[in-house]
Design brief:
By secondary structure, the protein is of the alpha+beta class. It has helices at residues 54-69, 82-91, 98-104, 115-120, 128-131, 151-157, 171-180, 246-254, 259-268, 273-284, 342-370, 387-397, 409-422, 428-435, 449-474, and strands spanning 10-16, 20-27, 32-39, 43-46, 49-51, 96-97, 138-139, 199-204, 208-214, 224-228, 236-242, 297-300, 318-322, 331-333, 376-380, 400-404, 438-442. Helix 9 (259-268) packs across helix 10 (273-284). It is globular, with a radius of gyration of 27 Å.
Amino acid sequence: MSGEEEPRSYYVGVDVGTGSVRAALVDQRGVLLAFADQPIKKWEPQFNHHEQSSEDIWAACCVVTKNLRETCWDKAGHFFDLPDFLSWKATGVTARSLCSLVCKWTYSAEKGWDDSFWKMIGLEDFVADNYNKIGNQVLPPGTSLGSGLTPEAAKELGLRPGVPVAASLIDAHAGGLGVIGADVRGHGLICEGQPVTSRLAVICGTSSCHMGISKDPIFVPGVWGPYFSAMVPGFWLNEGGQSVTGKLIDHLVQGHPAFPELQAKATARCQSIYAYLNSHLDLIKKTEPVGFLTVDLHVWPDFHGNRSPLADLTLKGMAYSTRRPGRMKDVKVTGLKLSQDLDDLAILYLATVQAIAFGTRFIIEAMEAAGHSISTLFLCGGLSKNPLFVQMHADITGMSVVLSQEVESVLVGAAILGACASGDFTSVQEAMARMSKVGKVVFPRLEDKKYYDKKYQVFLKLVEHQKEYSAIMSGD
């Protein structure tokens, strides 16, 4: 059979195991097309004696074989991204949000679906019936869906039928919408006299997303997009990201030998572990700024690969310590230090927070090199509640950081969509300006710029060296 021919015969393979019967539909090329399984009953009449029923096994074989004839695929009426599924449950409307389809489903706001793509990956049935299964009505975020809440959904939610429901946003994009349009007048910010495109929204939690918008499409290597109207209507969106941020901090802090001591002391003071670590850093900093405690310790934060701007999933995290002459003569990985006390944990925590901020600087530089012009950061998410995290982002990027008055900016962004769907505002931009409020502004310590510029040089050297080591080890 040539590579151009479609397979004409299909085969069923059945595997009877101890706990279940499994079956697969396989074509002539050996490609598994469908799968089904069915549990097998087991009896234990006495200890260490096991019995099964041949009739039950045959019945299970029949079930899985029948299930292969109509698969979780043929029966499916629609394929939704989660935000669109929830909108459908609320309204009964199968329309999709432009945000979900553009950012995750390869939909083009200008050209629509690309038939050739679905055919290339073997999902040409998505094209049938005018894309009915994946969406043939695509709406901008904030557009009112159908007649609002259905009676059934209204009863389950405790609301009245007909309450307007908006076309949705992905959660990080809702966070960006909730902060990026705030009225900044009177706060002494450079972005006050600049267009909204000078603002970068950073949604920082378990992982982090960096949302920048532009009037014209900008292609940034290693940064997703540009996506038209995927967050703010009429603007192109670029989305950078860091795969692990809050999760990385938790991982390094909780894995340190001094973590039990930290937990006990934080509990005794009725503080979170991070509030305690921040206060402990203030105690040990002596006369220098807190950030200078990591003069000898440098971290590369990609413990789960690099999303932006390198787009390299093979990269690993690095923690590197250099001791100056007169203190220690060696160069070593921090994990090999003999000292593992609370001071060491606090400094490792600080170096990790700084590494995440250096990662943000790395993303910003890539975006600016491609054509963005960014002057101010707008932070939201769980990590934005940590004053050390915020100050390090200001100091390391050299940019002012704006925090929202309402810390739950993702929820504010979602509410902005609802406000637009209700008709109370004429546009998403108007709702953003009215409903997003500046809570606090954190300015960079410009006197520390030289120090962070040096650490940033080391930061970039870390990944350069990691690639060199990989090349050596993978060579002949």
